[in-house]
Amino acid sequence: MIKVTLKDGSIKEVEQGIAIIDLAKSISEGLARMATCAKLNGKVVDLRTILDEDCSLEILTFESDLDGKKAYWHTTSHIMAQAVKRLFPNTKFAIGPSIDEGFYYDFDVEKNFTDEAKLKIEEEMKKIIKEDLPIEKFTLPKDEALKLMEDQPYKQELISEIPEGEEISFYKQGEFTDLCAGPHLMSTGKVKAIKLLSNSGAYWRGDEHNKMLQRIYAISFPKNSQLEEFIQLKEEEKQRDHRKIGKDLNLFMTSDLVGSALPLYLPDGATIRRLLERYIQDKEIALGYKHVYTPSLATTKLYKISGHWDHYKEDMFPIMKMDNEELVLRPMNCPHHMLIYKNSLHSYKDLPIRIGELAHDFRYEDSGAVCGLERVREMCQNDAHLFVRPDQIKEEFGEVVKLILSVYEDFGFKDYRFRLSLRDKNDKEKYIDNDEMWDSAESQLREILTELNLDFYEAEGEAAFYGPKLDVQIKSALGHDVTVSTCQLDFALPERFDLAYIGEDGKEHRPVVIHRAILGTLDRFIAFLLEETKGALPIWLSPVQVKILPITDKHQEYAKKLAEEMKKEGIRVEVDDRSEKTGYKIREAQLSKVPYMLIVGDKEVQENKVSVRDRKEGDLGAIDTAEFLQKLKEEIL
To answer: Which pLDDT does position 221 carry in this prediction?
Structure first.
């Protein structure tokens, strides 16, 4: 007998050599039916794994976590590959991994997949599911594995790269066998609802010098109702996609002549960005921040001192050589601010020193990762660095949290969580290798968050390379966790730049740096706002707050006079003086998400009134002009 400790802490005694799926059956028949894979001593394994020693075991299902879903989706990718093999026998198979939302498979086919072909593949997949084929795992030595895949060049390439002595496993279902590490479900019949989503070209191994393959994206679920919910969510995502909204509202554009992931802000989009810049800078100035401007590039020497060169250079643009200097576009602003602090001698009385900047940073993002304003190669960061004494850490960190909460209240954000992001102790490449510094920083930050009475959870491997941080995860309208604000505790950079202040004892002491970004990057923040509001931004942030619609040409003079009065009050207003029907103008303004439309005709001119239409509530009736203007100013403030 061996003892198995389950996730809930309970201990089960089972016969040695029992498979995980049999263990699940012994615990619960329902659990066995839902099981997709398991975590054995922290490692995701196949349900066929034989238990032969005491272990920590968690049986995973589709509902339990992402690993459970991925086993389900990876099994379905093999079902899709088998269907393609049946329909297109000459296909060469590449890879078919699960991803965060479904799976894909890359195929080398004679002709690109048409919509008709995809329908046939989906129907064939349903047949394979109905056949309920057992899925069997087996292993082979390298020479036999290569022989088995002799007509599959992509599989042979992968097998050739597997180190000698390492297991080479295959999964077989009916007539189809695929090279795979697993895990998989026990049979094809465990999959229920499927949907092919899209297809595109994809270079083998993401290298443009390799052959272009055909990639099909798909997803599957244990229940049809889950698939229906997913399809509805996808439709909602299309409506909320900030790229679509940005195009519809004429906020930003891109051009191949400028380059990928380098958006151009159009007048209305520039207005939104300018308002956000003023908003956050005014808040920071009121809290004692001093704003600076620093160059968007620097020598490689600077980033070697900071550590970015060792830990971040793969995400930086290539070196530019000029005279005797090697320059790079900066990925972030920390090193520049360290030098600004170091430019003067500081007393303990001077601290805290809060240096802020709306800074332009550059990241060498892969073309497959860029997305509208959400992920760009040049971004504007709402950045700041607080130089504090050790005894000021808690208070200053608390003030940053207060600022974050104040901003979220202004924007109406309510559904968010605090995440304490820690390093992965085993990843010596990603993080500065200083155990003492990390242990101290993580311990202090955990203590600060506890004393601030913040409800937080911990995430290993999410820290910055130089220190732990607090990330605020906002739940978006589509249910995604989005990181907007971040606050980081840093003992490393002050040491690397030899920063100091003169203490009360007349001796030099090392400050601590708090890195923080409240809005994150303005580009990503705008993308987030557009998707949350579907483009119907709060009135203070709307590029056009009021649109005046004269019914005929004879009402234009009154409309323009009214517009001038509003402009003097700082209201962003436009007059639609086109020779179009009023109904058409209203629809246009409604689609443009303008908060208020003012219709003016004979009656309005005679009585010095406006007929007001709200973008949400519709027709509000005729209102005295002065009364409406006062109401508008109060709402904007």
So the answer is: 96
Pairing of strands 193-203, 2-6: unpaired
Q: Is the pLDDT of residue 349 over 90?
A: yes
Tens digit of each residue's pLDDT (9 = 90 or more) over 19-45? 888 888 877 888 888 889 888 888 899
- Mean pLDDT lowest for which of 68-82, 429-443, 598-612? 429-443
469 is a catalytic site residue: yes
Alpha-carbon distance of 216 to 214, in angstroms, equals 7
Q: Are residues 141 and 226 in the same domain?
A: yes
DSSP 259: -
Residue 600 pLDDT level (bands cut at 50, 70, 90): very high
- Examine residue 244 and state whether it is found in any structural domain, yes or no: no
Query: Of these residues, 515, 516, 555, 585, which one is catalytic?
Result: 515
Question: Does residue 258 belong to any structural domain of this protein?
Answer: no
Shared-domain flag, residues 271 and 310: yes
385 is catalytic: yes
The domain that holds 568 is classified in CATH as 3.40.50.800
Q: How many domains does the chain have?
A: 4
175 and 234 within one domain? yes
Residue 573's contacts (CB-CB under 8 Å, 6 or more residues apart) are 544, 545, 546, 547, 548, 563, 566, 567
Annotated catalytic residue within 180, 334, 380, 487: 334
Catalytic residue flag (residue 55): no
Q: Whole-model pTM?
A: 0.81
Vertex 561 angle, CA 556 and 563, to 5°: 95
pLDDT above 90 (res 452):
no
**539 belongs to a structural domain:** no
Rg from Cα positions in the chain:
30
Tokens representing 310 are 């060792």
Catalytic residue among 190, 423, 469, 609: 469
**Which residue is catalytic, options 363, 377, 419, 585?**
363
Active site residue 363: yes
Q: Which CATH number does the domain housing residue 25 bear?
A: 3.10.20.30
Do residue 209 and residue 273 come from a single domain?
Answer: no
Q: Are 596 and 636 in contact (CB under 8 A)?
A: no
Q: What residues make up the domain containing 34?
A: 2-61
Read off the pLDDT of each residue in 375-390 and give the average, rounded to a whole number.
Answer: 94
Can you give the CATH number for the domain in which 227 is found?
3.30.980.10
Note whether 350 and 413 are same-domain residues. yes
Beta carbons within 8 Å of 227's beta carbon, 6+ residues apart: 193, 194, 195, 219, 220, 221
For the question of residue 184 being annotated catalytic, the response is no
* Shared domain check, 98 and 21: no
Q: What angle do CA 411, 414, 420 make, to 5 degrees?
A: 105
What mean pLDDT value characterizes the chain?
Answer: 91
